[in-house]
Amino acid sequence: MEEGSAVVVRELDAERDCSGVEALERLCEVGPSGKMSLFTDMMGDPICRVRHSPAYLMLVAEMGVEREIVGLIRGCVKIVTCGKKLARNAKSGTQSSVLVPVYTKVAYILGLRVSPSHRRMGIGLKLVSRMEAWFRENGAEYSYMATEKDNEASVKLFTDRCGYSKFRTPSLLVQPVYAHRVGVSKQVTIIKLSPRDAESIYRRRFATTEFFPRDIDSVLTNKLSLGTFLAVPVEAGEIFAGAERFLANPPESWAMLSVWNSKEVFKLEVRGVSWLKRGLAKTTRLVDRALPWLRVPSVPEVFQPFGFHFLYGLGGCGARKVGMMRALCSHAHNLAKDHGCSVVVTEVASCEPLRLAIPYWKKLSCAEDLWCIKRLAEDYSDGSLGDWTKAPPGPSIFVDPREI
User: At a CB cut-off of 8 Å and minimum separation 6, what does 258 contact?
Assistant: First the structure.
């Protein structure tokens, strides 16, 4: 081995490594079938994608005399719901009929990158191993990651060499933001909730959802959160008297979601599209702007760096919840248009009942994303839960926007 050719894995130096990390990100395409590639972090901040998490770390791998950055990985640790159990009556000690969440500390790996010219050299394995050591030091019981189902190299690294098992296959749904505003049903009233009211409803109604973050309050009050929106039937009125009254006497049907401003974190870019298709896309935009009342499903300018909004915390109740959610998605589209975003993105469980309400374009979306998981701890704080890696999937999943 030549002098300086050994791989060195170390913690990121944000000031010194910024340009090297950005150059590596440009080389590495991510997204469904390589159609969508990560472009750059905003404001030259390479750790901005994880610094909103309670505990995070970013490692780089460097090589050569000039210490070229040839690999990087991000990781964070948090406490989430991994199951549910019947609550016990504090006075009698007997079980009640109320289900409460079971929490565990998990770690999440995101943004693993290895330079195309330095692959198959064990760099990815070195980065994952070092990150897992940090996870264990911070008490994580599980580690999980997400990748494209058809990314054979990534799947093989984690499942064959790192001991992960395939766990969940949620759907990543992407809707373009048109030049025209979309209509919102007049049968629905949409209310913007305060972070406190949103937290109360999430904890009361959705805390047993798999991967629900225990620090949901930190998510909802983050500067990147654009708000939580509640949809109720128009006959329920526009007056919202607070979460407690709502939960005590909710309407027959309702739905809610929250919006995260990923535009302020990083941008994406669609590559590998012919000039003919680009020209056709431009034509749809011109027609949509000139004749907005035609509601042409125009293709936004996604062939250069663009921002997006991420929808999370989707949920609802009642026979009309799908219609309520459809109205919320329309509202979210118009909000993204006002903020200059090109697409709206969300990720839901493949069997999520509300998926029918979410508009998306198949060519930009991923029907089956792949989440893999690994058990790190030998013992569990709650022995009745067992091994989460073997738990069957539920109908819903909570996708933390801090990990997108």
Answer: 198, 219, 220, 225, 227, 228, 229, 311, 312, 313, 401
What pairs with residue 103 in β-bridges?
Answer: 81
Rg (CA), the chain: 22
CB neighbour list of residue 313: distance below 8 Å, 6 or more residues apart: 202, 206, 228, 256, 257, 258, 398
The DSSP call for residue 245 is: H
Distance, in Å, from the CA atom of 55 to the CA atom of 75, rounded to the nearest integer, reads 9
Q: Which amino acid is at 25?
A: E
Q: Which amino acid type is present at position 12?
A: L
C-alpha of 104 from chain center: 19
Tell me the backbone φ, ψ of residue 326, rounded to 5 degrees.
Answer: -60, -40
Residues 283, 365, 199: CA angle, nearest 5 degrees: 115
Helices (H), 89-167: 123-137, 152-156
Q: What is the pLDDT along the chain (404 residues), one digit of tens a residue?
A: 344 568 999 999 888 888 888 888 877 765 554 444 434 444 456 666 666 777 899 999 998 878 889 999 999 999 999 999 888 765 666 666 788 999 999 999 988 999 988 888 899 999 999 999 999 999 999 999 998 888 888 999 999 999 999 999 999 999 999 999 999 999 999 999 999 999 999 999 999 999 999 999 999 999 999 999 999 999 876 778 899 999 999 999 999 999 999 998 888 888 778 899 899 999 999 999 999 999 999 999 888 889 999 999 999 999 999 999 999 999 999 999 999 999 999 999 999 999 999 999 998 888 889 999 999 977 655 444 579 999 999 999 999 999 88
- Cβ atoms of 144 and 106 within 8 Å: the answer is yes
Distance CA(404)–CA(38), nearest Å, equals: 11
Q: By CB neighbour count within 10 A (0-12 exposed, 13-18 middle, 19+ buried), where does 235 fall?
A: exposed
Instruction: Report H helices in 293-366.
Output: 321-338
What predicted TM-score, i.e. pTM, was given to this entire model? Answer: 0.90
